[in-house]
Amino acid sequence: MKIRITAGPLAGLLILGLGIPASAAVVPFTAAKEFLPSTIPVNGTTTLNIVLNNENGTTDITGIGFSDTLPAGLTIVSPTVPGTFPGCFNTGTLTITTGSIVVAGTKVVASGACIIFVELKATTAGTITNTTSAFTTDQMSLPAATAQLNVDLSPTLTKTFGELAIPVGGSTSLTFALTNPNANPLTGLNPWVWKWQLPTGLRAAAAAGPFLPRRPAAARSR
């Protein structure tokens, strides 16, 4: 007996003499996850999406189970019902708490898909890695899915006078420094606008020069 796989990652492979039905040769079911957006500030929010996709046109994927326990620094603030794709959670259970997602005994019908999406709040700066358990089904099993979220501290703005004491009618420089405390570049800051009202007795004598980029101390020491 010869079986040629026509779909999935093994497409084109010819199987000889195994004595298995063509329906069992391949079950194109995938599971993936992502954060949107993948970079947010501390105390900002993002959406975690877990996508279950059954590309098989004739076979339902049944008995789907997995769990996702959030790492420290991430909290679910707005659980949402699964997406409205065909065959999404016809059976089984979906349990969402502030710190975990658990799916048991569910199915995705043939040619169907399902997205679980929850809103998360990040309270800790840094790169947060979130990994599910393995995905189990009645037909097959899939390895754990992983996604990373970058959580950035806000930039800091400082100002410094060139001279601490000057005579009446004298002048001094005033320098503003915008510093990125994170290891990765900050985006969305161009243009970055702030306003500072000069106190009584001070006025601008000349236009300021251009901004000069500064790297964090840790980066400058490399």
List strands and helices in order, with pairings.
Elements: E1 2-4, E2 14-16, E3 29-36, E4 39-41, E5 45-54, E6 61-69, E7 74-79, E8 93-96, E9 100-108, E10 113-122, E11 126-131, E12 135-136, E13 141-142, E14 146-152, E15 156-161, E16 174-179, H1 217-220
Parallel strand pairs: 4-14
Antiparallel strand pairs: 1-2, 3-5, 5-10, 6-9, 7-10, 8-9, 11-14, 12-13, 15-16
Describe this structure in words.
- This protein has one helix at about 215-220; strands at about 1-5, 15, 30-35, 40, 45-55, 60-70, 75-80, 95, 100-110, 115-120, 125-130, 135, 140, 145-150, 155-160, 175-180.
- It folds into 2 domains: about 25-150, ntegrin, alpha v. Chain A, domain 4 (Immunoglobulin-like, Sandwich), CATH 2.60.40; about 155-220, no CATH class.
- The chain is built from 1 helix and 16 strands.
- The strands form 6 sheets. Strands 3-5-10-7 form a 4-stranded antiparallel beta sheet, with no helix packed on it. It has a 3-stranded mixed beta sheet with strand order 4-14-11, with no helix packed on it.
- By secondary structure, the chain is mainly β.
CATH topology of the largest domain: Immunoglobulin-like
**Radius of gyration computed on alpha carbons:** 27 Å
Helix coverage percent of residues?
under 10%
- Rounded to the nearest angstrom, the distance between the terminal CA atoms is 62 Å
Structural features:
16 strands, 3-stranded mixed beta sheet, Immunoglobulin-like, 222 residues, single chain, 2 domains, 42% strand, 4-stranded antiparallel beta sheet, mainly beta, 1 helix, disordered C terminus
Quick take:
The protein has 2 domains: 126 residues, Immunoglobulin-like (Sandwich), CATH 2.60.40.1530; 69 residues, no CATH class. The chain contains 1 helix and 16 strands.
